[in-house]
Amino acid sequence: MTHRPAETQVVGIDPLGLAGILGVPAGAGALIIFAHGSGSGRLSPRNNHVAAGLRQAGLATLLLDLLTPAEENVRENVFDIDLLCTRLLSATRWASRGTVLARLPIGYFGASTGAGAALLAASREPDRIGAVVSRGGRPDLAGSAALAHVQAPTQLIVGSHDRAVLELDQAAARHLRCEHELVVLPGAHHLFEEPGALDQVIGHATRWFRDHLVLRLRRAGWTRCFPSPVAGAREGCWPAG
After folding, report:
1. Distance of CA 241 to CAs 5, 34, 99, 215, 226, Å?
2. Using CA atoms, how far apart are residues 118 and 132, in angstroms rounded to an integer?
């Protein structure tokens, strides 16, 4: 089972008016907010491809620029993990106030340096963030202390040929105390440009978000269910009404 392609719309994230692209498929069961890597943003072709796959699986997505155009011209800002974390949390609070999005549990999808910002944000808002996925990410940039405080189940996806990042992810995983998984995609490099590599990322990320965000809802007693669009995955349960 797959969902009809969701239309996307341009949104402004208060209070700075950060530009975002929001897509909410009918019956969406969760919202996934993207934290992009250095030098990237809401128009990232790779993250847009992943976001489209997640929407087809019934998950809403928000891709946004974590920096204003003026801030992007300052190179140091691109690697300021604390600043990026603050912006990501602002977007999270914005989504939580929206009439359409407020009911949805929230997960983060971080790429490259964005993964560090996502995990730092998850460590600061443990009750708000339900799951994190990192694609070719730098979770180490969150810092070992923050990693130890992350409660959201975390999946780290790395290409087998991205050896430097793989070593960093392996080291970061040793600091995680939450449920976590390291997925190594054979033959993939840092940008996952190999044929089918990003589709594998979509499959793993969909499974992780569905399993962990759905289980969180089940524990809260949410009962309206429908079959999972992912073959072999558990059924999804969402709020009634």
Report:
1. 22, 27, 14, 19, 13
2. 7
Which residues 6+ apart lie within 8 Å of 47 measured at CB? 34, 36, 40, 63, 109, 111
Q: Among the residues of 60-136, which ranges form H helices?
A: 69-72, 75-78, 81-97, 113-124
Interval 86-111: pLDDT, tens: 999 999 999 988 778 988 999 999 99
DSSP 68: -
Place of tokens 């800002």: 77
In the chain, domain spans:
8-233
Reading the block at residue 48, the tokens are 């847009």
- Three-state secondary-structure class, residue 27: coil
pLDDT of residue 214: 62
Render pLDDT for 10-30 as a digit per residue (tens, 0 to 9). Answer: 999 988 889 999 999 998 989
CATH class of residue range 8-233 = alpha beta
Start-to-end CA distance of the chain, whole Å, equals: 21
**Burial of residue 82 (number of CB atoms within 10 Å: 0-12, 13-18, 19+):** exposed
Strands 236-238 and 8-13: unpaired
Residue 114 one-letter amino acid = G
Tell me the percentage of the chain whose pLDDT exceeds 70.
85
Query: Comparing C-alpha atoms, which of 218, 26, 30 is closest to residue 106?
Result: 30
